[in-house]
Amino acid sequence: TSATTQTAMLVAHLLSLSGRMVGMSCASGVSYDRRFLKKTNSSHWKSARQVLLHRAVDAAVIESDMKTIAGEGLAYDRCHIGVMTSFSGWKPLPDLGIPDEEEQIFRVLRTQIDVVLSGGYSILNADDEKVVEMSALSDGEVIFFSAQADNPVIRDHLSLGRTAALWSSDELVLHTKGEVRTFSGFPKALFEADGGATIPVESVLSAVAVAHAMQLSDELIVAGLQTFT
């Protein structure tokens, strides 16, 4: 399962614990209220629209891959939160007119950040240079995340009093406009690459950043990390 899919599933889990009725479409399928109705790749327009049109859903978590964005477009005009976990790893789509050129791929992927509302948040990977470039495109507040405590992008971001999620000295740390919050009480080995991690660190960090943006409590976030499978 990709880091993007893991992020979507963890975000959906956290939001469900907060009492929201969550609809999710991602590469692992479509689910409502943590129950999967379909377990085939659903990171496409049709499944996303089904989630958005479901009357009981009050929080939608949608994963869109590059092929979907380029070929079908996003299933929504604007969003409250947009997440970009990685720029690298995407392959060209010559059948859709997307050659193996960094700038062309960038133009497709930036779409997710272009649609973030002015009162919303862009959650961006500070360890990926091309993702960092997208910060200038966001109408909303930017929250960076990084697996490197000494990341210079994070350092500059925090010097401006902004928000970032970090994996620092085997601790999950959230810097929120001058305040430092350290999360504990969850199985850290689950997220460590050398410990046979099943969940990429960037997925955990980005999901925690989303949870913060959605005003979930620290206690609920820890409970979500403890119970996520």
Structure characterization notes:
The chain has 229 residues and is α/β, with parallel strands linked by helices. The chain contains 9 helices and 10 strands. The strands form 2 sheets. The chain has a 6-stranded mixed sheet, sandwiched between helices. A hairpin with a 2-residue loop joins strand 2 and strand 3. Helix 1 runs parallel beside helix 8 and helix 1 crosses helix 9. The longest helix is centred in the N-terminal third of the chain and has 15 residues. The protein starts with a helix and ends with a helix.
Structure, briefly:
The protein has 229 residues and is of the alpha/beta class. It has helices at 3-17, 45-53, 66-71, 102-109, 111-114, 129-133, 152-159, 201-213, 218-227; strands at residues 22-26, 29-32, 35-38, 59-62, 79-84, 116-125, 141-146, 163-168, 171-176, 179-183. It is globular and about 45 Å long.
Task: Describe the protein's topology.
Blueprint: H1 3-17, E1 22-26, E2 29-32, E3 35-38, H2 45-53, E4 59-62, H3 66-71, E5 79-84, H4 102-109, H5 111-114, E6 116-125, H6 129-133, E7 141-146, H7 152-159, E8 163-168, E9 171-176, E10 179-183, H8 201-213, H9 218-227
Parallel strand pairs: 1-4, 5-6, 6-7, 7-8
Antiparallel strand pairs: 1-2, 2-3, 8-9, 9-10
